[in-house]
Specification:
The complex is a heterodimer of chains A (about 210) and B (about 130). Chain A has about 210 residues and is an all-alpha fold. In chain A, about 80% of the residues lie in helices and about 0% in strands. Chain B has 6 helices and 3 strands; from the N terminus they run H-H-E-H-H-E-E-H-H. In chain B, strand 2 and strand 3 form a beta hairpin. Classes of the chains: A mainly alpha (about 210), B alpha+beta (about 130).
C-alpha cells in the first residue's frame, strides 16, 4: 500500500534533489554579499553601477552551475505539466506583485528611499515577490534566507544612524552572506562527493 | 534477470508482473511523475547500477511501457527516458488494482480466491477427464 500511495513523495523527492547541490544557497549568499559591497564601493568613489551590474551577473550562478556541475552529476529531468504551469503562475504572480508596488515607491511613502537608498528600495520591492516564490517553490531553507534578508535591510537602516553605512552593510549583510555562502559551499562539496561525474549511460543503454 | 527465471506463482490476481517487480516499479513510478528524465537521473533516484537499470529498461521498452531516446548535447550523448501512453495506462491500472486489492475486505478477497480455485479445479477435472477417455 505504501508503494502505491507514495507517488507524491517520489515527485517531491525528485524535485528536492534538484536543490541538493547548494547552488541556490550560494546565490542567496552572493546576493547578501553584493548588498554588503555596494555601500563600500560607493564610499571609495566607485559608481553604484557596478553593484547593479553584479546584480545582473548573479543569475549566471545557477545557470552555469546547473549546466556545469549539477546536470553532469545528477542528470536532468523535466517535470510534469502541473509543475510547469505552477512555475508560470509563480512568474505571473511575482511580476504582478512587483508591478503593483511601483506606485507605492514612485509616488508613495517609499519615494524618499528611491533617492537615498535605491538598493534597499529594490530589496523591499522584491521581498514580497520572493516570499511568494518561496511558498511556490516549497523549499523551507529559503524562508530563513528571506527572513534574514528583510531583517538585514531593517537592521542596516537602523545601524546606519550609529555607524558608517559601509560598516552597517558589512555587519548586516556581509556576516549572514558569508555564513550562507559557506553553507552553500559545504552542500556543493557534499553533492560533488555524493554524485561523482559519470558517463556510464553511454556504455549501457545502447539502443 | 530474465522473465522466465522469475518465480511462476502469481503475487495477486490480474497484477501486471512486469511493473510489480520493485526495481521496475520504482522506475515506472519515477517516470510517471515526471515528463521525462535522463538515464543518469533515473539511476541516481532509483539507486540501481547502470547495468541493472539498463536491463530493466530493456524489458520495459520491449513491453512498450518506456520510450528511450538518444540525444546529443554538443558531443555528449544523453539517454532520455519517458513513459509511453500505454506505460502510463498500465501503471495507473496497476495502482488501481493494487489499491483495490488492499482496500477490498478479506471476505471479498477470499471469495475471489475461492472462485479462482474452483475454476482451476474444474479445468483440472476437464483435463483429467479428457485423458481418461483416451
Amino acid at each position: 500500500m505504501e508503494r502505491v500511495e507514495s507517488l507524491k513523495e517520489i515527485e517531491r523527492k525528485a524535485y528536492r534533489s534538484v536543490f541538493e547541490d547548494g547552488i541556490y544557497d550560494i546565490l542567496w549568499g552572493a546576493v547578501f554579499f553584493v548588498n554588503a559591497l555596494v555601500p563600500i564601493f560607493n564610499s571609495i568613489g566607485v559608481s553604484r553601477f557596478y553593484g547593479y551590474a553584479a546584480l545582473l551577473i548573479l543569475p549566471l550562478i545557477p545557470l552555469i552551475g546547473k549546466r556545469v556541475i549539477t546536470v553532469p552529476r545528477l542528470g536532468s529531468v523535466e517535470f510534469g505539466p502541473r509543475r510547469k504551469s505552477r512555475g508560470w503562475l509563480l512568474l505571473l504572480v511575482c511580476g504582478l506583485v512587483v508591478f503593483l508596488q511601483l506606485p507605492l515607491f514612485i509616488i508613495g511613502p517609499g519615494k524618499s528611499l528611491v533617492g537615498n537608498a535605491p538598493w534597499t528600495y529594490i530589496l523591499l520591492m522584491a521581498a514580497p515577490a520572493v516570499a511568494i516564490g518561496v511558498v511556490f517553490v516549497n523549499f523551507p531553507r529559503w524562508y530563513i534566507y528571506l527572513s534574514l534578508m528583510i531583517l538585514a535591510v531593517i537592521q542596516s537602516e537602523i545601524l546606519a544612524g550609529y555607524v558608517s553605512r559601509p560598516l552597517a552593510s558589512v555587519l548586516c549583510f556581509g556576516l549572514p552572506g558569508v555564513a550562507i555562502l559557506g553553507y552553500g559551499c559545504v552542500l556543493l562539496a557534499n553533492f560533488i562527493r555524493k554524485y561523482p561525474k559519470s558517463h556510464a549511460e553511454v556504455a549501457h543503454v545502447s539502443r | 534477470m530474465s522473465a522466465d527465471k522469475e518465480p511462476q506463482s502469481e503475487p495477486a490476481p490480474d497484477i501486471d508482473r512486469l511493473i510489480h517487480e520493485p526495481a521496475r516499479y520504482n522506475i515506472m513510478a519515477l517516470l510517471y511523475v515526471v515528463e521525462r528524465a535522463d538515464f543518469l537521473f533515473v539511476r541516481n533516484q532509483t539507486n540501481l547500477t547502470p547495468g541493472n537499470l539498463s536491463a530493466h529498461l530493456g524489458k520495459l521498452e520491449t513491453a512498450g511501457y518506456v520510450k528511450i531516446d538518444k540525444e546529443f548535447a554538443g558531443k555528449i550523448p544523453r539517454t532520455f527516458l519517458r513513459l509511453t501512453e500505454s506505460g502510463r495506462e498500465a501503471f495507473s491500472v496497476y495502482r488501481h488494482r493494487m489499491r483495490k486489492l488492499f482496500t477490498s475486505p478479506p471476505e471479498a478477497r477470499f471469495q475471489n480466491l475461492k472462485g479462482k480455485i474452483k475454476k482451476m479445479l474444474s479445468a483440472h477435472d476437464e483435463d483429467s477427464g479428457g485423458s481418461d477417455s483416451m
